[in-house]
Amino acid sequence: MFQFLKTKRVTSQTAPSTETNLVPAKNTQQHNDIRRELIRVVLKDTLRANGIPTNWLACEVIIITRPQAGDELHIQLVILKWHESLLRYADAFQREFLLDLDRFDPTVDHIVSWRFPPDCDCPFKQLPDPRSWLLSAQAQVAEEPVPVLDRRRVPREPHSARPDSPGASDGRPPKEYAPTQVAPLR
């Protein structure tokens, strides 16, 4: 009676072992295809959300599988249409794009690079004079950052008591000073 259970167990063990070797390769390829498509969809959504035309950027995805570290996704953003503002805000766009990707799969490391194909209509075909880099670096150092809440055109004078103003030396308010009057509510 127990003999037939042993024979079934042996036959059932050999058949799935050949299937399990084939299934992970198929699932891995399908999983990678789904990841690639997800990245393309997230890129289009990020472009649309920020008002950037969707035909300005494309992406290519290379999946690097490492046994101990897990998967890494190398995303190459390809600039299809040159626009200087896009490059000015490339870092901010990249951060938002990666934040959007992390909402779907936060465990995967993303490596992002930018690529400029020859037909992207970039107007700068040659590097400028080497001295221009030094001049632009000096101009950036000379500028003092303005606090976000400070909207004045002329900087405020430093805080110090003026010796010619009345009440500055003894701490009393000047004679023209009128304190705020409290008015009753109606």
Write structural notes for this entry.
With 186 residues, this protein is of the alpha+beta class. It has a domain at 21-123: Alpha-Beta Plaits (2-Layer Sandwich). It contains four helices and three strands. The protein has helices at residues 3-49, 84-88, 90-104, 130-142, and strands at 57-66, 70-79, 109-115. A three-stranded mixed beta sheet has the order 1-2-3, with helices on one face. Helix 1 (3-49) packs antiparallel against helix 3 (90-104).
* Proportion of residues in β-strands: 5-15%
Binned, the helix content reads 40-55%
Give the termini separation: 100 Å
| Named CATH topology of the domain at 21-123 | Alpha-Beta Plaits
Rg measurement, Å: 33 Å
Low-confidence stretches: 8-24
Q: How many helices does DSSP assign?
A: 4
**How can the largest sheet be summarized?**
3 strands, mixed
Main structural class? alpha+beta
The strand line-up of the biggest sheet is 1-2-3
Based on Cα principal axes, name the global outline.
elongated
- CATH level-1 class of the domain at 21-123: Alpha Beta
In brief, what are we looking at here?
The protein is an alpha+beta fold. Helix content is 43%, strand content 15%.
List keywords for this structure.
186 residues, alpha+beta, Alpha-Beta Plaits, 3 strands
How would the blueprint of this fold be written?
Blueprint (H helix, E strand, L loop, with lengths): L2 H47 L7 E10 L3 E10 L4 H5 L1 H15 L4 E7 L14 H13 L44
Parallel strand pairs: 2-3
Antiparallel strand pairs: 1-2
